[in-house]
Every structure is written in structure tokens, then in C-alpha cells.
Amino acid sequence: MGLWLGVARRRGVVIVGVVVTGMSFVIPRTLNEEPIYQSKFRILVEPVNAENDLGNLTPGLGNQNIKSSLDYQTQIQVLRSPELMEVVLAEVQKTYPEISYNSLIGNLKITRLGKTKILEISYQGNDPDLILTILEQLAKVYLNYSLNERQTNLRQGIQFIENQLPSLQARVNQLQNQLQAFRERYQFTNPDSQAELIASQITALKEQNLALEQQLVQTRFYVGSLQEETGALAALSDAPLSQQIIGQLRNVETQIAGELTRFQPQSTAIRLLQNQRQNLLPILEQEAERILGSKLAEGVTEVQRLETQRQTLLVAQQQLEQQAQQMPALARQYTDLQLEIQIASEGLNRFRATRETLQIEAAQTEIPWEVIEAPVRPVVPISPNIQRSLTLGAVASIAVGIGVALILERLDNVYHNLEELKQQSKLHLLGNIPINKQIAATPSNNSLAKVGGLLSKPFTWLIPALKQKSTPYIYYGDSQSSHFLEALRVLYTNIQLLSSDRPIRSLAISSALPGDGKSTIAIYLAQTAAAIGKKVLLVDADLRKPQVHPRLQLSNQLGLSNLILQTLSPEDVIEQKLPVAGLSVLTSGQLVPDPTKLIYSHKMTQLMAGFHETFDLVIYDTPSVLGLADASLLTSHTDGLILVSRIGKTDRSALTQALENLKLSQIHVLGIVANGVKGDSISPYKYYKSGYGNNHKEQDWEEEENLTPTLFK
CA 692 to CA 684: how far, in whole Å? Predict the structure, then answer.
């Protein structure tokens, strides 16, 4: 905020000037602008309850189709079309022949009010009567269009659809017949389910075939076993008759064995039993042959039956596998037919739905559009809005003014306040010296000023007030309340506090460029140190443009250059008879062609060493730093350098370059002094102003460049 206030304070005149200039253009243009009028009318283009009625008439169409039945953007473009505009233009030109199509369409505006079913038609221009005439003709043309043109377009659309429906229906019927024939030919309704059925049947046949294979193996093994003794015995064991015969045979053999124990083998009983056994053996053999033959015949028949059944299953399995291989192609044909039927059916349904929608719209268009707000003759112009135009002009002018001020501020490469100086220099701020008007001006080179001075001299003995004050900074009385003197005392105190182990006994005062007030600061600082009891020597080391002797009105016949070039004693050259006790001044002396050579000479080093032993404080007023080596050469033999910067005048880049040069030369810079500080609000000496305000009149401040001290004539 402080930065903006500072810019406004410094560039206030620029901002005000831009604002005044801008408003000088805005005000006449606003007041002289031709008034523009506007009027409008509104048309209801659809019935308010159209959605409910259409939903009842066509519940199958849904609300979405009904809501989008009227494309408002397209309808607006149709209403602005040349075909309708030419009808309006023909009627209007009967009364206003100067009206053209471009002006008519350029000033016409048609919009939809939000999401309502209302269109707003507005027209603007300079003639209220012309506006009313155009709007009335537009309303009439639009109402006729709603009855005629829209009805004709809808009927044509319905007729086109009616002509297309038979061919679409025939296409759908043809595809459905093809699908029915396909299903009848291949005896399925769905290829996916048929494929699953065939797969399950093939699986069942494989399982049955596997079971038959097992039965066939068992049967063949059984037939083979009948032809062996073990198998034959097993077969006979299952026959009851053979078992009965075997039982009788075993019984006879048992009897024979029992009788042999009692009789001889040739006995009659034994012979009878042996005959009986011989009779049973043929019977047993015949029965065995009969049973084995029967079992063998049954086994062979079973093998043949199983073989036949197995062949039948294999044939059925092969047929199903062929059908399974054909299913992908059949499924694709079926899907293609289904897709064609779906596309044809959807197209047919869309045409039917569109026909119903157009029929409903045609029924609606039989009810014409309704003008719900008639056009009226405009009375109050919509433009110019003087208050708004002036406000916007003022805001724009202020914005431009601020922009110009910021540009000038950007281009202004000087320091405006102490904060900027401290932030960029990064040096100790030893003091901020205000501008004081209490000091008498340097004798002017202006001829008119000289003439005025000569004319006033004869009258100074009559009017003492005309005498120029020669010593305004003698340290007694109320002069001690001056802000300027207090700032110098603070500057001297801060310099002494820079070194705690040994006091500063010599220092050089310089600046980045001429005109920053270094000479005046050096003069006043020397007086301040002498006033507190120090033995001070002020040396004017600026051998190019010396400033000390003209400001103190001293003779410059002999000075520093004479001490270096001639064999003179410093006591013969240094001016010691000054009103301020303890203050001595060594002027620059005669100008020489090569001042740098003198400053760098051995004689100068010896003189400086002598000065430092003789005086408590030696202050050297040196040339500016940039472009000259004098300050760097001389400061190397002192305790340090003080840079003076003029607020509002010192160039930032110049000070930065000067600091870089001093850093390269390894010069000890004690700090910086802000000279020419304006305004009482930033001064730390307001306390003294309030404390001594009753006895001391505060003087106005002005730039220090135009003010120099005069200690004596």
C-alpha cells in the first residue's frame, strides 16, 4: 500500500492530467451522441400445454421427441432469412424508401427467452416511428408464415414418409419370410441353442458308444471262455438238468465205492452200478453239448447285436458332428438375417414415429403463433446512457492514468525514498539529510541577480535588513533546533560509532555522479565536528571542479595543488581564521592539467600523513567516483569513504556501478548518506519541531543544490 501511495504522490499530476484529457473526449462525445431507440414484441410459437396433449395422443413416442419437435436455433435463422425479410422490406419501403436489407437485418435481433416457448423480436434505430413500422410488419409476416409456410412444409414431409412406408414394409416382410424359411429348413429357431443341443447329443452318443464297447468286449470274452474247459464247466454249473445228472452220477459212484468194500469188482451189484454209471455218462455228455451249444449261440448273437448297435451309434455321431461343423456358417446367416430385419424394422418404426410427430405438428400449426406482447413506439432512448458512459470513461481514464504513471515510474531510474536506497545499496545508512531553506544561496552567475545585488549594496547601510546573513550556522541560540543541524549531528555520531576500537580520524566524501551534494555535506559535517570540540581539517581534494572555496567564500590563490607542486608550509596555505572554532580549511588551489598525478604523488601521501597526525578529523571532499580514479586513490590512505546519494536525483545504475568500482578497488566504504530528503513525516526530528516550535519558525525546504553556506564574506 505504501508503494502505491508513493507512486500516487509522485505521479499525481500525471494521473490527473490523463484523467482530465480522457474526460475531455468522453464528455463531448457522450453529450453529442445521437440517441438510439429500441422496441420489441414477443410471439408464443407453441401451445403452453403442448407437451401434455402430445403425450396423451402418442404415449409410445416418449417426451423426448415431443420436446425437441421445434429446433429454435434453426427457426430463428429461418425468421431472419432473406425470403421473409424481402416481404417485410417491400412493405416498409413504401413509407421509408431509404431502408435497406443490410440495415434491416443488422438492427434486428431474435432470441428465445430462456427455455420457454416464446421468441422475442427486437429492433433498434434512430427513428421511433420507423422502429414501430418495422416491428408491426415483422409480426404480420411471422404470423402468416406460421399458418402457411410451416403447414406446407409439414404436409410435404408427411407425404414423403407415406411414400416410403410401403417399400420399407415390403423389405421387412421379405426378410421375415427368409428367416422363417431358414428356420424350417434347418429345423431350429436359435442357432446358439441348436449348437448346444447338438453338442449335448454328441456327448451322449459318445458315452453310449463307450458302454457298447465295454459290453462287446465282455461278450466276446464270454464266447471264448465257452470253448475252454473252465468256461464250459462254469456254463454247465448254471444248468439245473446237467447238475441233476451230475448229482446222480456222483451218487452212483459213491454207491460203487461203498459196494467195493463189501463185494468183488465182478459182483452183480457192482456190475449193475457200473452199468448205471455208464448209462448216465452219455446222457451227461449230450446235455453238456446241448447247453454249451445253446450258450455259444447266445453269445455269438449278442456279439452281432452289439456290433450292429455300435455301427448305428457311430453313424449318428458322424451326422451330428457334420451338423456341428455347419453351425458357425448357419449362425452367421441367421445373425445377418436378424440384423437386416432389425435395421429394416427400426427404419420402419422411425418413419412411423416421424409421421405421427409430423401429423401432430401439422395439427398444432393449424393454431397460429400468438403475439403475446405487441410492439410499441419507443420513447426513452437506450443509448447514450450518460451516467454509465461518464462513469466508464472516468474509470477508463483513471486506469490509463495509473498505467501511464506506472510506466513513468518504471522508466524513472532514481531513488525516491530511503527504503529503496537501503535495499539496493546494502550499505549502512549513516544519515538522512533534509533540505533546509535557512542557508543563503551561492552567489549566482545570473546577470540579473548580479545587477540586483549591485543595486542593493548602496542601501544596506540605510536598511540593515538588506544585508545578507553571512554566518547562519553559528552554534548558539535557537539555531540548534534546525532539522538540518540535528541530521548532521546524527551523521557525525553514526560515523564515530562505526569503529569501537579506534576513532575515525580521516574520511573521504564522494558520490556516484556530480550534483548529489557531497561538497555541502563535507562542509557541514566539518562544522558539526568542530562545533563539538574537535580539531577538524576540511580538504578540498576535487582538483577538477572545486566547490569548497566558492561556498565558503574563501580565497583559492594557494591550496592543495600548491602544497604538492611547491615548497610551502601547510600552515601558510591552510585557512584557520574561521568563525567556527577548531575548523580549518584547505582549498583546492590552482587547477592543474593532470589532477590524478598529483593525488597519486608521494608528496600527497606525506601531506595526508601529516594532516592525520595534526588534526582530530580530516575530511576530504573528493570528485565523483564514476569515470575518475581520484576518489579511489585518495581514499586508500584514509579510514574509509562515505557516499552521498541524492533522493530523487541519483541514478540507480550509476550508484550500482560506483559501488562495483569501489569493490574492485578494495575501498572501505563506511556507509551512505541520503541527501535531499523531502517531507517532515520521514524526519526523526519531529520531536524537536514540536518542542521548539513556539520559539523557532519552521523554514520551508528546497533543493540543496541551489543552497550553500556562507560563513563569512
Answer: 15
